[in-house]
Amino acid sequence: MKMNRNEIIEKLKEILLFADDSSNDKIDSIGAETHLQNDLGLTSVNMLYLIIATEEEFGIRFTDIGMNEFGTVGDVADYIERKLS
After folding, report:
1. CATH top-level class for 5-84?
2. CA 78 → CA 22, 56, 70, 82, distances in Å?
3. CA–CA gap between residue 66 and residue 24 (Å, rounded)
């Protein structure tokens, strides 16, 4: 599945809505620079859901990195791009 960065970020925004429905009011402002914990307030449970949903959506596995190593939406998008290429 080949996707560009903007498409990946749009899919991540959808996943974030399910991971934390309080992100709904922030969804339009979510971009690559959005910090997962500081800006969106994701908890460890939300982060776990984000991992699982991202793996399912993109058909990838987070085998060589932990979710704690991602600070921003852009960090996650970069990782997904690398895994998909």
Report:
1. mainly alpha
2. 25, 17, 10, 6
3. 25
